[in-house]
Amino acid sequence: MPPKILIVEDTESLALMYQSYLIPTGVNTRIAYTGEQAIAALEEFQPDLIILDVMLPDMNGLDILSSLNGDNSPQVIVLTGHATKEMAIKAIKLGASDFLEKPIEADRFRITVNNGLKLKDLKQTVKTYKSTYENGQYFDLIGSSAEMQSVYQIIKSASASKATVFITGESGTGKELCARAVHLASPRANKPFVALNCAAIPKDLIESEIFGHLKGAFTGAIANREGAAGQADGGTLFLDELCEMDINLQSKLLRFIQTGCYQQVGSEKEVKVDVRFVCATNRDPLLEVKEGRFREDLYYRLHVIPVTLPPLNQRGRDVIEIADALFKKISKEEGRSYRGMSDAVKNMFLKYSWPGNVRQLENTIRNILVLHNEDYIETNMIPALPHSQNQSVETAASEPSHRVKTQFEDNTPISSEIISIDEKPAEFSQSDIEPLWLVEKRYIEQSIDACDNNIPKAAALLDVSPSTLYRKIKSWEEMQVS
User: Fold this and answer.
1) What percent of the chain has pLDDT over 90?
2) Residue 82 buriedness (CB in 10 A; 0-12 / 13-18 / 19+)
3) Per-residue pLDDT reduced to its tens digit, 362-413
4) For 434-481, CATH number?
5) What is the mean pLDDT of residues 2-10?
6) Where would I find the Response regulatory domain in this sequence (predicted)?
7) What is the pLDDT of residue 82?
8) Residue 420 has pLDDT above 50, yes or no
9) Of 156, 213, 165, nearest in space to 184 by CA
10) CA–CA separation, 287 and 31 (whole Å)
11) 3-state SS of the chain?
12) 279 Cβ partners below 8 Å, 6+ apart?
């Protein structure tokens, strides 16, 4: 049965144009020209996805969006014409999966609708099979938290398809393990899995690394070489740190993804392969698009099945499960015995923020096993972890709650002050009151500056998504212009 899409647009010519955009996709569409018609269609038509204009003649489209709060609610794509960025942000907070600004190109419209339908299918799958992986492990991924259960379900749902998986997450969260799980869960599991780190290859060589080259194609090409694309034929090609790829090579990658054909460096012959793409980045891809470092059309071509890996400090007791598995694995590699961790060690691991995520945890565990030969892990074996330049994890765990030190991931303290709850606050009068948005703006700008203008890092420390900061910055810029 084809998906059902409700188009809510009061301008008839635009509504019919959007409907014509979707004809090639084979979906079932219906048009509502007013809010009242849309509400009636929700009950009768029961759409899988709604294209929702905000400015309707009889009501605000966001009022319709706010009423959709059930588990089986359709996905919503909000259309903005004269709307502000603040309105778009509000729409996302109310549950919209995406928003589009008018005028809208046909390809962009179809891709956004297709992604919205895929997201609805994945959410339904997550709900249906929520408790499938109660053992806390999915291939090499470990963790029983709800966040990781959702990741496992998305991988399981996407694995049978050839659709591109786009993995985002901080450094050290296990993006390559996630990509490998996508491959191993798919029908391509017995075919090659080829990983290519776009950040680790010199700019002048990355095209050759991906597509291969012929002998004599450039200085140093002493023999024919098959690239990663050819090696992955029939299997999966994993492009790690994709946003590091040179902008000039991105157009060739886009064509390769669209057609499955490429040319080796120095050759005019086209080679066709069957490759499933998985890519990953620790950057905010939309910000990279805005800054002109990443092609927008490539982003929308790749951003089909998004997977966001949560940082370790948001995964609860997963840190204990991962630590135990790593102790067992590394103890065998290092020829050590391991029987378990004390409760005090577990508590320290749970309290620590792990800015380097699983990679930092793994390095810490290897340090413990290399430097100590005991088979039971106690707190005195844990090395000093970077809360401050001379503070160990033990002192951090025992520090009084009213004494706070703040530090970013690069271990550079942003303040050496110790704040005491006993200090008497300064006098505060009405003249000191500022608009809340201005206070937020100043604090966010200070945070970004402290992170050396690294917005994803600032967003992680502020516990918001990078896109949230980007939208706020954009809204402030527009306020200054106006």
Assistant:
1) 44
2) exposed
3) 999 999 999 998 989 999 999 988 763 334 444 444 443 333 333 333 333 3
4) 1.10.10
5) 91
6) 4-117
7) 65
8) no
9) 156
10) 34
11) CCCEEEEECCCHHHHHHHHHHHHHHCCEEEEECCHHHHHHHHHHHCCCEEEEECECCCCEHHHHHHCCCCCCCCEEEEEECCCCHHHHHHHHHCCCCEEEECCCCHHHHHHHHHHHHHHHHHHHHHHHCCCCCCCCEECCEECCCHHHHHHHHHHHHHHCCCCCEEEECCCCCCHHHHHHHHHHCCCCCCCCEEEEECCCCCCCCHHHHHHEECCCCCCCCCCCEECHHHHCCCCEEEEECHHHCCHHHHHHHHHHHHHCEEECECCCCEEECCCEEEEEECCCHHHHHHCCCCCHHHHHHHCCEEEECCCHHHCCCHHHHHHHHHHHHHHHHCCCCCCEECHHHHHHHHHCCCCCHHHHHHHHHHHHHHHCCCCEECHHHCCCCCCECCECHHHHHHCCCCCCCCECCCCCECCCCCCCCCCCCCCCCHHHCCCHHHHHHHHHHHHHHHCCCCHHHHHHHHCCCHHHHHHHHHHHHHHHHC
12) 164, 165, 166, 167, 238, 239, 240, 242, 302
CATH of domain 4-107: 3.40.50.2300
Second-level CATH architecture of 129-310: 3-Layer(aba) Sandwich (3.40)
On average, the pLDDT of the chain sits at: 83
Residues 6+ apart with CB under 8 A from 453: none
Residue ranges covered by each domain of the chain: 4-107, 129-310, 313-398, 434-481
What top-level class would CATH report for the domain 313-398? mainly alpha
10 in Cβ contact with 57 (< 8 Å): yes
Mean pLDDT of 119-132: 58
Q: Do domains 4-107 and 129-310 have the same CATH topology?
A: yes
115 vs 107: CA distance, rounded Å: 12
Over its C-alpha atoms, the chain yields an Rg (Å, rounded) of 26
| pLDDT of the residue at 388 | 34
pLDDT tens for 320-370 read 999 999 999 999 999 999 999 999 999 999 999 999 999 999 999 999 999
Q: Is pLDDT larger for residue 129 or for residue 54?
A: 54
Angle between the N-to-C axes of helices 318-333 and 357-371, in degrees from 0 to 180, rounded to the nearest 10 = 40
